[in-house]
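User: Before I run my own analysis I want an independent prediction to cross-check against. Here's the chain; please return only the structure tokens and, at the end, one sentence I can use as a sanity check.
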Amino acid sequence: MSDLVEALQAARESYVREDYASRVKNLFREHLEQLEPEAKIEDTLYFNHSAIPDFKLTWGRGSAGISSRDVFLRSSYAAVVAGKETTQITTGDPVFLSISANLIVEEPGFVMTKADVARVARESDHSLLTDAEAFREMAAPVTDSNPLSAVVRSNFLRGARGLVDEPIAERLRSTGQGTEGNVTDLIRESFFDDAVLRMERTALLVQWALSREAAEDELPRIEGSMSTEELRNVLPWLLDQAVVPKGNAFWKALGSLFTFEQLEELASDLNGYDVTSLVQANLTNWSAKRAYLGLNVPVESGRTQEPHEPVGNGEADDEGTETSGDESTDFTDSWRFDSGTLGLAQGPFMVRVSNSGHKLKARPGSSTPKWSATVDRLGEYAIRSVSVAGIERAFRVDAKESGNIKDDVDRVVESVADTYFVSHVEVLLPGPVHEDQDEGLEPVAVDFGGGIAIANGPIQLGALVRAAANIMGNQQLDDKLRVAQLPEADASSTR
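Assistant: Structure tokens:
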């Protein structure tokens, strides 16, 4: 990453009209991408236009909505002040980014002071005036361990307003230094209300993490939806804190701020972390679509486990991770990320869960269990369909044919002397719980040969993992998952 100020100075000194604009825009884009990795950055192909921005930044997706901001590159603060641009350009929450950091101009017919720039900045509640030196300060990597510093940095282009020159940028960046970092008056003055709320939420999480005696009545203040970048700034730090509250209340409140899909996006950041407390507290809040049952291969002590797909995911079950015979670490009964997926080890088995079909795939060519050995595992589940095969015949029974699938299959199996193996069943599991709504039941296809359970829609995380382990591996996870017995339901109750 080049030094922005020095690179801009070099572009000016070697000025060539035909390529100056592209060189300047490429430099700023490079730093925009570093500062805003979650934003879509659109180059409008204009440069220093009076009304058309140089870049358009867009954030957000899904239920969180979409926000955007226009970035106007300017040669100097004087150009913004002389053109009265904060009152002329009022849409798009404009960011006026001055190449020059000079706040004082004394020329015949035009005099400008820092107070003049600050006054012009205040003429609009939704404009940001800043410069290359301040931008370089904000884009620099965070070295402070307190996540509030990182959240201030990540909210700068999305939520800052008013005048932010280099001294102000430096003060903002130092807000979270040490363990006493908190939301200051400067932050409240320099950011939109929604950005301030995000920072206050981070500050509250930090206070909770650093205090064993945090009051329960503070929990309602932790609300809203965290962006993935916010989560990346905060979660590893929280998991590293020895005094983080161990009760479910804190972790449940934290888990309500984001989705399991967002947590999966942080898989590489969280590789090796024990996230048991967080996952256990949100087994019914979070949802996933796939659960895979493979072997629990301990991680060799002293080195990071080599990336690999889940056991059977295109590999033979006994291949696993190569070891040298040294001591190994068994993570049984803990939730951890490894190789991009979240897994729970139970004895010889590992249950992995994901929303991605790229991360969790069925293994090819594996054997299937006998129907007689499987039927008891299905006792608590409402079943939509069963597919079994013997030497002489294969058949499928669907719920529409009868309300008691297991009895129908048993009658067919008993009618012909053969050994029957079950390849697939489709069971009903609870979907996400929404406020003021009862949980619904969704179909989940269990592929015994592939070692995987797949749903088209979201399924409660705990229910999905428990079903995959109990049905395919006969591993009783009631105590570990603390998931209540599934409600009885007819197949007709599916949505």
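Sanity check: DSSP finds 19 helices and 19 strands in the chain.
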